[in-house]
Amino acid sequence: MSLWIVYLIAAAVLMIIELLTGFVATFCVAIGCVIAAVLDFMGLSIEAQLIGLAVGVIVAFILFAPLINHLRKKHNVHREEYNSNMNALIGREVFVTQSIPDGGGVGRVTVDGDSWQAVSNSGDAIESGVRVRVTGYDSIILTVKPVI
User: Fold this and answer.
1) pTM of the model as a whole
2) Side-chain half-sphere of 141: how many Cα atoms within 13 Å?
3) Rounded to the nearest 10 degrees, what angle do helices 46-80 and 24-41 cross at?
4) In what residue span(s) does the NfeD-like C-terminal domain sit (predicted)?
5) What ranges do the domains of the chain cover?
6) What is the pLDDT of residues 121-143, one digit of tens each?
7) What is the CATH number of domain 86-146?
8) In terms of C-beta density within 10 A (0-12 exposed, 13-18 middle, 19 or more buried), how is residue 56 classed?
9) Does residue 25 register a pLDDT over 90?
10) What distance in Å separates the CA atoms of residue 56 and residue 104, rounded to the nearest whole number?
11) Phi, psi (5° rounding) for residue 23?
12) Residues 61, 41: Cα–Cα separation, whole Å
């Protein structure tokens, strides 16, 4: 098997790792492997290939790392604007399915067919069947208050 094929296989594996982990360095090494594959295909010596690989990694890291990190930060800022996971439950109106005892006791509510543990935000008891609004959460326990 030619060495340039090994370089390309290594580049492909590194790109898969990059897609799974988001670790910029693997992308840069994959670029270096592609450069080394081209140099081997051109018939240059192993020393030239290794120098090409090293220079390719360094140049790719200098060029792409700041850009990729900037795009990640930009993407994360926009992601925070959307309600997701537990935050999406806040403000929802649901029904109590198991009475919530007073004094911070835990009952249950159903949200979209899923049963969640719930406590009253005021510490007062809430009977089964009462419509409540989700006001917050602590871990996986929802905090609710009766809808008036």
Assistant:
1) 0.49
2) 10
3) 150
4) 87-146
5) 3-80, 86-146
6) 988 999 999 999 999 998 889 99
7) 2.40.50.140
8) buried
9) no
10) 61
11) -90, 110
12) 24
